[in-house]
Specification:
Layout (H helix, E strand, L loop, with lengths): L2 H12 L5 H8 L3 H13 L20 E9 L8 H8 L4 E6 L6 E7 L2 H12 L5 E8 L5 E2 L2 E2 L14
Antiparallel strand pairs: 1-3, 1-4, 2-3, 5-6
Length: 163
């Protein structure tokens, strides 16, 4: 991948709403060249989706997000590919990562409540033949996601009083 396309990706990563004209101005390039590069990266699935980062805690929404460590047995000739595919096809699954360390896959899921998440783990995830063990962690609060800080904390301006 050339520097021009990498520069476009860096700009779009920071703000996916940037137009080709704005990017061209920022890079000192022709708008047609930027549009062509973006179209090519979309076609090649380098750019997969344009997304919005939402601070759901500011919305009256009761979503529950969980991270689940999954230990599983790899399949001969395919490794973890088939297992990961079986997992990521469930609509409640938001992300699946192959990991190094004590477990093999990290799965991020969303549910309406704790019961729904627990049901997914016990009835769908843990019943997959290759899955040996799972460990679930519920996200209580997000402070930062995708480089975006959700809560700005004010500095404490009180005077320090010591005995």
């Amino acid at each position: 991948m050339n520097e021009f396309k990498l520069s476009i990706l860096d700009l779009l990563k920071e703000d996916a709403r940037l137009s080709a004209a704005t990017i061209a101005t920022m890079l000192g390039a022709e708008e047609a060249d930027v549009s062509s590069a973006i179209a090519e990266m979309e076609r090649d699935h380098v750019i997969v989706k344009y997304a919005t980062v939402i601070n759901w805690s500011k919305v009256d929404d009761e979503k529950v997000t969980a991270l689940i460590e999954v230990e599983c047995t790899p399949e001969r000739g395919r490794g973890f590919e088939n297992i990961a595919e079986r997992i990521y096809l469930y609509p409640e699954v938001k992300s699946v990562y192959l990991m190094s360390g004590a477990y093999d896959l990290l799965v991020e899921i969303e549910g309406k409540n704790l019961k729904e998440v627990a049901s997914f783990v016990s009835n769908k995830l843990s019943t997959i033949e290759s899955v040996i063990a799972t460990k679930s962690f519920f996200i209580l609060k997000k402070y930062k996601q995708d480089g975006i800080i959700f809560e700005e904390f004010e500095d404490d301006h009180r005077l320090l009083v010591s005995p």
